Amino acid sequence: MYKRIRRQLTDVRGGEAVPRGGCSGADHVPEFEPHRHIRLLTFNIQVGINTSSYHHYVTRSWQHLLPHRRRIENLDRIAALLRGYDVVALQECDGGSLRSGYINQVQYLAEASCIPYWYQQLNRNLGALAQHSNGLLSRFRPLDVTEHRLPGLLPGRGAIIARYGSEDDPLVLVMMHLSLSRSGQQRQLGYIRELIADYRHVVLMGDMNNHAEELLGQTPLKETDLIPLPATAHSFPSWRPERALDHILVSPSLEIRRSEVVSCPLSDHLPIAMDIALPKGYVTAY
């Protein structure tokens, strides 16, 4: 399948595509076993564009509309990075349009990194021009996966929620890409806050377009006890990180064993990684 997708990118025929969200299906995915550690990664991949300077936003802007032969090479480098993680949240993926060579980038990265489960959330459907999407990659079979359209003045922002482990007391991972505006973030995080209110073991991860201090102090997330990354975890821009826009926020019940900004400049954002330990007693509960 992976080789077939590569051939599609290098030999685009321009036939009619059926752009839509997708999922690998879970029948072939291993059960969520009682691992004590789970390696998480969140990455805004900027539809596979390698941006390493502010002027590239101008000189490489055409790659947001048209295919580029080196995009697949960058996706392969991203896939090599993803192989080291158990659950990956992806933002700014293309679900299969002209600019990506009609390749579903979530599926491509899952297969190229040998991660068995993938789920694509199509948030903004521009037909053959662009398929703006979020993505989930997972080595474990989730209990269920749901997608949510986040509120905002402009449509096109979404979140994916994957639950793992016990039905009665699941591990809940929420993957999101928030709006740029503060008012939009207020509404979106209020919505997220309601979704996670009844769970003990929660991870929020994604491109949140804001610093943790404001997210946890000036938005509805202040009503939670989520733990942020260190304030020095700057992820944007990738070539000179000065702002902490990408986050993994976790409940106190989940022990953070390791967290880092991964020095892998393959997009205009750097990836964020975290190794979490499940709470004591949870591993033997099912």
TrEMBL record:
- The keyword Nuclease appears for this protein: yes
Arranged from A to Z, the UniProt key words for this protein are:
Endonuclease, Exonuclease, Hydrolase, Nuclease
Q: What GO annotations for molecular function exist for this entry?
A: endonuclease activity; exonuclease activity
Q: According to the lineage, what is the superkingdom?
A: Bacteria
Pfam families registered for this protein in UniProt: Exo_endo_phos (PF03372)
The UniProt record lists the Endonuclease/exonuclease/phosphatase domain at 41-269
Q: Name one GO biological process term.
A: GPI anchor biosynthetic process
What is the name listed in the Swiss-Prot or TrEMBL entry for this protein?
A: Metal-dependent hydrolase, endonuclease/exonuclease/phosphatase family
Species of the source = Marinobacter mobilis
